[in-house]
Structures are given as C-alpha cells and as structure tokens.
Design goal:
By secondary structure, the chain is α/β, with parallel strands linked by helices. The chain is 43% helix and 16% strand. It has helices at 15-19, 24-33, 50-68, 75-90, 119-130, 144-158, 184-202, 205-214, 245-252, 279-287, 307-321; strands at residues 3-8, 36-40, 43-48, 107-108, 113-114, 133-137, 163-168, 217-221, 233-237, 260-265, 293-297. The chain has a six-stranded parallel sheet, sandwiched between helices. Strand 9, helix 9 (245-252) and strand 10 (260-265) form a beta-alpha-beta unit. Helix 6 crosses helix 7 (184-202) and helix 9 (245-252) packs across helix 10. The longest helix has 19 residues, at 50-68.
Length: 322
C-alpha cells in the first residue's frame, strides 16, 4: 500500500542545499529507500511504503537540522543518517545514552566540523574522549585514523593537551624506497603522508607548519619514539599492525602523565615479513581485558569511503573464509 506524506520547510534559502544540484540528494534518497519524492516550492511529497516514507522523513529532518547549524549536507551525510536509523531499527534495546545520532558528538577544528558517520564511529569518538588509551581496529575506510586525528586536534586547540604526536612504523608495503633521493625526512615522509593529509584537512597550512617547527606537532617514524616519555600529549600510532611485538611494547610504555594514546590498525593487512607476529595482534591478545584500555572493533559495515570499498573488503573477507 502506497502512503503519501507532505513535508514543508520554512527557510527557502536552505532548500537548494537540501535538494542538491539538480535534486541529486532527493534522487539519491529515492534510490536508497525505493520511494518517490516530488517537490513543489518549499514542500516535498514522499510516496512509498509507510516504513520507507517514515525513514525518508526522519532523514530529511536530520539533514535539515545540519543545514540550520551551517553544516555540510551531501550523499555521505545521507548514508550516515541511514546507518544511524538502521542501527536503531536493528538494535531497539541498545543503550542510547547519550542518544545515538550523527549530531550526538561534534568535533570542531579550524577548517571544518567533523561528526561521526556510523554508530561505531560515535562510540569510538566517545571512547577516545573518555579513555586514556584506545585501540581502533578494523578495515580501511572506517575512519579509525581520521577521527583519532580530529579528536587530537580538537583537544590540542582547546588546550587539553600541549602536544600532538603522530607516528607510523616505516615498513615497506612490497616496495623499496631506500633508493629515493633526499635526507631521512624525505625518505620517511611517504609513510606519514596520510597523517599530513588529515592534518591539512583540519588546520590552516601556516598554523600547521608553525606548530611543526615549534615542536608542538610532531610527525615521525615509530623508531623516533624510543627512549622518550610522552607527557601532556595526544599520541597516535597509525598502521600499528606493522609493528613487531617489541616495537609495540616500546611504544605503549612511552606513555607519560596527562597523555592519551590511540593505536589504530588492521590486523589482516600486515606488511611484516612472513613469520613475524604483529605487535598489534599481540597487544590485542594481551591487553583486551586490562582495565583502562578500550578496544573498538570496526567491520565492513562501517566503511565510509566509496561504496565499492565496502564490497572489496567483503570480497576479501569471504576469500579468507574459503
């Protein structure tokens, strides 16, 4: 049975942003929910099953709230709203305190406002804010590193920490970079590029470069952490699956007073030589039940990159089960 529902929006200036160029956002929502959307002036008519029409109304309302807060709206935000709604539908008894929604937690940086795009991302961000040490585990595209960088930048800008320290193990993924020209920095920077990209997405270039020169923001290979005590800092170890057990122990024991650590990685994607156990896997086995350390496990449903990425992750997962 087809149900019709009319929604009216009061601010005509925001309508083009809600509808998208050539009504692209409405068309995307039609495709996702299998409904029909007709617009006339500041009114939208939704036609479809009762459940789908209700879902569309909830999602459009959430998008409208974002626009009123001067936040971006696009296909990614539509997907995020769908994820949160599906999670509420599939887990009706799930604790929602605070309420689980994409507007529940907001990270503000100098260049953009960042919100979680899946229920697990919301849990992950809350965990980072609450716990001194958090492990973010899961496949590519789930936002493990990007959200950790965002949380760190937010704490740095608010004065909650004095320094930001980002590091990665410099392990070659089937390539040899040693022949490249340049000094040590030139050779290791390719390993650290994802960190630079995330920071440039959140901070003005001049501000970032100044803080790097002053030492308040440090981006370095994991080996540079040896022998140090990292106090009053937000520290991220990225690509942690490529650490050895010894390296992981070394890193974790660098933690000093008033510091927070986030360790991210995908245990299934290690580039270590055959026969070498991943320090991330070892730490997960040893520390998962240690009080004060939180582990967040992402899965393919949390992938927020191009839709094909989720399908690719799923295909490789299925191959591993065969």
């Amino acid at each position: 049975m087809t149900h019709n529902r009319v929604i009216e929006f009061q601010n005509n200036d925001l309508l083009p942003l809600l509808f998208g160029a050539n009504n692209a956002h409405l068309g995307y929502l039609e495709q996702k929910l299998g409904i029909h959307i007709a617009d006339r002036g500041n009114q939208i008519t939704l036609s479809g099953s009762d459940a789908d029409v209700q879902a569309a109304e909830e999602i459009l309302s959430a998008l409208w709230q974002r626009l009123e807060k001067k936040q971006d709206v696009g296909k990614a935000e539509i997907d995020a709203a769908l994820r949160f709604r599906n999670d509420r539908q599939e887990n009706p008894g799930k604790t929602k305190a605070p309420h689980m929604s994409e507007n529940d937690i907001v990270i503000k940086t100098r260049k953009k406002t960042i919100v979680p795009r899946s229920p697990n991302q919301a849990v992950y961000l809350r965990s980072i804010m609450k716990n001194e040490m958090v492990f973010g585990l899961g496949p590519a595209g789930t936002g493990k590193t990007y959200l950790a960088v965002a949380a760190g930048v937010s704490m740095f800008l608010s004065g909650d920490v004095e320094r930001l320290i980002f590091c990665r193990p410099a392990v070659e993924a089937g390539e040899r970079l040693g022949f490249l020209p340049g000094d040590m920095k030139d050779k290791v920077d390719p390993y650290l590029r994802p960190i630079y990209d995330a920071l440039h997405d959140m901070l003005d270039t001049d501000f970032l470069e100044r803080k790097v020169i002053e030492g308040d923001i440090e981006i370095a290979p994991l080996a540079f952490m040896r022998g140090r005590t990292l106090s009053n800092a937000f520290v991220i170890l990225d690509e942690a699956q490529n650490t050895t057990c010894t390296q992981m122990k070394m890193f974790l024991t660098r933690m000093g007073e008033a510091s927070r650590m986030v360790i991210t990685g995908d245990i299934t994607q290690t580039d270590l030589p055959v026969g070498i156990k991943s320090g991330l896997r070892d730490a997960t086995e040893l520390l998962e039940n240690v009080e004060g350390i939180n582990f967040m496990h992402f899965n393919k449903d949390d992938v927020i990159r191009h839709p094909l990425v989720s399908k690719i992750v799923n295909a490789y997962d299925m191959q591993g089960k065969n």
